[in-house]
Automatic annotation (TrEMBL):
Family annotation (SUPFAM superfamilies): cAMP-binding domain-like (SSF51206)
Top-level division of the source organism's lineage: Bacteria
Domain Cyclic nucleotide-binding: from-to ranges: 31-117
The protein's name: Crp/Fnr family transcriptional regulator
Organism listed in the record: Reichenbachiella agarivorans
Pfam families, sorted: cNMP_binding
InterPro entries registered for this protein in UniProt: cNMP-bd_dom (IPR000595), cNMP-bd_dom_sf (IPR018490), RmlC-like_jellyroll (IPR014710)
Length: 190
């Protein structure tokens, strides 16, 4: 839990008072998920904003033949089906762990309480939502402006020590190519 406090204090560039931290931390729940666990199914409404302490998580749209992977979340990052979380509507996609994952989670209702009862709560909430938005925007711009090879190299540069845990079929889906095309990209790079 101290990892989250340090992350927040770094992000908001100020200390969180003990009183506010005690209230905030009292609303957090710690959960461990095994590898290949579905955290959120399509059609369910997201009720948590989560901080990934350890692990890798993927977001995907379930399809009959090949699921469409569109996001990976790594250690020390927020994750949520945020569109579902804020609108309180069912998610059109699923969230699954790719490795064993440990998460610190806060429910929608508890987050609203934090917003109402603390000064720092709104700042933390804003920073978390900005973080999720910036990652989404970066991903969209990458799809519009970069080649599949550039997207693969960027993923490799961002998380070189973790990418080895992601099955190649998910990486191929994420960069928008077939597994065979990814094999050709990897051969060209090495």
């Amino acid at each position: 839990m101290e990892q989250i406090r340090q992350y927040f204090e770094r992000t908001i560039q100020q200390k969180i008072s003990e009183k506010e931290w005690m209230l905030f931390s009292s609303k957090l729940s710690f959960e461990e998920f095994p590898k290949r666990h579905i955290i959120l199914r399509a059609g369910q409404t997201e009720n948590h904003l989560s901080f990934v302490e350890t692990g890798i998580v993927r977001y995907f749209i379930p399809k009959l033949e090949n699921n469409l992977t569109f996001t990976f979340v790594f250690d020390n990052n927020f994750m949520s089906a945020y569109d579902s979380f804020i609108t309180r509507t069912p998610s059109p996609y699923q969230i699954e762990t790719l490795t064993k994952a440990t998460l610190w989670r806060i429910t929608f209702d508890d987050l609203q309480t934090i917003y109402e009862e603390t000064e720092v709560g709104n700042l933390i909430g804003r920073k978390a939502s900005e973080d999720l938005y910036l990652k989404k925007s970066k991903r969209e711009l990458s799809l519009l402006n970069e080649t599949a090879e550039q997207r693969y190299q960027n993923l490799f540069l961002e998380q070189p020590h973790l990418i080895q845990y992601i099955p190649l079929k998910y990486i191929a889906s994420y960069i928008g190519v077939t597994p065979q095309a990814l094999s050709r990209i990897r051969r060209r790079i090495t």
